[in-house]
Design goal:
- It is built from 18 helices and 8 strands.
- The protein has helices at residues 3-17, 23-31, 34-51, 56-63, 67-79, 83-86, 99-115, 121-131, 138-151, 156-162, 211-226, 251-255, 273-279, 290-295, 311-341, 348-351, 357-364, 371-391; strands at 166-178, 186-194, 200-207, 238-242, 261-264, 282-283, 286-289, 307-309.
- Strand 2 and strand 3 (200-207) form a beta hairpin.
- The chain is globular, with a radius of gyration of 22 Å.
Length: 403
């Protein structure tokens, strides 16, 4: 897209969102491949014209789509006013994925749901290979089933029994790399995940060299957002921290008095393995590459696969991915609430599709039987803050413990 067209896109974006366009939308636009940016411009122009009362059939022609496809596009835009809803495969050319491979992903989800929590993974792998429309390898089948498990709906009884019982704090690389003038580093992410609900409680992003600070930010932010979801004075669950190299030699000594804390501090392959089990290989549009974190290298399919972005844009994209992941998990919890109460949740405050901490806490407070879990969650994130305060003495210039 030439500069004049990009200026027109900027004007359209300001019309769509007002003078203050969300930072993540600018990040999405700047990270798009040129052909995708052109599609985004064409469709956004058509959608905005349709909002100005251009007949739907005319707007569809302007978007280069048939009437039905444009109607669906408009519905996505109304649900999620984002460039992401207008253009698939944001930031890169679309992968050539056969219908059979996509069908295998949905088949994997069905198999996981039908099998329940006591499923034998080896049996599911054989079933998926046998039933998939396309030939898939055992490795691919295993990955699809792992991703499907992360997408599966939460069992309300599991939520009741296990909410807050474990919070995992772990690291992974991504498929993004900063520009050369920012060091050309792999963009890493630190995530705190509540294991039963798979809600991301806190996160931080940056180069691998900043891992110590990222860990502290994640722990402090998780506590700031969730320590009031329940009674933080109750017995905490387990806080499992996959420790970065910055703290490996001192962390055990500093946190030793906290018996509810498990520190994983040995082995190059410790990073990201548990994250993948909980979240699958991606959150939103951000793919997770644990080996890229461990080795500080691009994903295995080469440097060409790494998206070159500024650290500011990478952070905005990851933030957007976390919010949308949490919004999806919130919808899963709504389904779980419906199973507990026997009726569909209709309260607008609960059913609105948002993934911020306030909305998630509202959701968790909906079911009285989850009270013990909420107390464990509040207590465990508070424990995380205590650990971060203890560790912060090792990085005094980099983090403010009072945050």
């Amino acid at each position: 897209m030439d500069p004049d067209q990009f200026s027109l896109l900027e004007a359209l974006m300001r019309e769509a969102w007002g003078d203050v366009v969300p930072a993540e939308e600018w990040a999405i636009a700047r990270s798009m491949a040129p052909d995708r940016l052109h599609i985004a411009f064409q469709r956004l122009d058509a959608v905005m014209d349709e909002e100005r009362r251009l007949p739907l059939s005319d707007a569809a022609i302007k978007a280069g789509m048939d009437r039905i496809a444009f109607f669906r596009l408009r519905q996505r835009w109304k649900r999620d006013r984002s460039l992401r809803s207008l253009t698939p495969f944001i930031g890169r050319a679309p992968r050539r994925v056969g219908l059979g491979k996509e069908g295998a992903s949905e088949l994997a989800l069905k198999l996981v749901k039908d099998a329940g929590k006591n499923a034998d993974t080896s049996i599911l792998v054989e079933q998926l290979i046998a039933q998939s429309a396309d030939a898939i390898s055992r490795q691919t089948a295993t990955r699809l089933l792992r991703d499907a498990s992360a997408r599966a709906s939460a069992d309300p009884e599991v939520i009741e029994q296990e909410l807050g019982s474990e919070i995992l704090v772990d690291f992974s690389g991504t498929a993004m790399r900063t520009a050369i003038d920012e060091g050309g580093h792999i963009v890493a992410v630190c995530l705190a995940v509540e294991s039963a609900s798979r809600i991301i409680l806190g996160w931080a992003a940056g180069p691998i060299s900043r891992s110590g600070t990222m860990l502290l930010e994640t722990l402090f932010n998780s506590a700031a957002d969730y320590d009031d979801v329940g009674d933080a004075d109750q017995i905490p669950g387990r806080l499992r921290i996959v420790m970065p190299e910055d703290f490996v030699n001192s962390a055990a000594f500093l946190i030793a008095p906290q018996r509810s804390v498990e520190i994983v501090d040995s082995g190059e392959r410790r990073f990201g393995r548990q994250l993948i089990k909980l979240l699958g290989h991606r959150i939103g549009r951000v793919s997770l590459h644990p080996r890229a974190y461990a080795r500080g290298e691009p994903p295995a399919n080469g440097m060409s696969a790494a998206r070159i972005v500024s650290l500011k844009d990478a952070t905005a994209l990851i933030g957007e991915a976390v919010r949308h992941h949490n919004a999806d998990r919130r919808n899963v919890l709504i389904d779980a609430v419906s199973k507990v109460t026997g009726s569909q949740v209709t309260n607008s405050e609960v059913s609105e599709e948002t993934g911020d901490a306030l909305a998630l806490k509202t959701m968790l407070k909906t079911v009285d039987r989850w009270r013990d879990g909420r107390d464990r969650l509040a207590s465990t994130v508070s424990l995380g803050r205590e650990c971060a305060s203890a560790l912060a003495v090792l990085l005094p210039p980099m983090i403010d413990p009072a945050r």
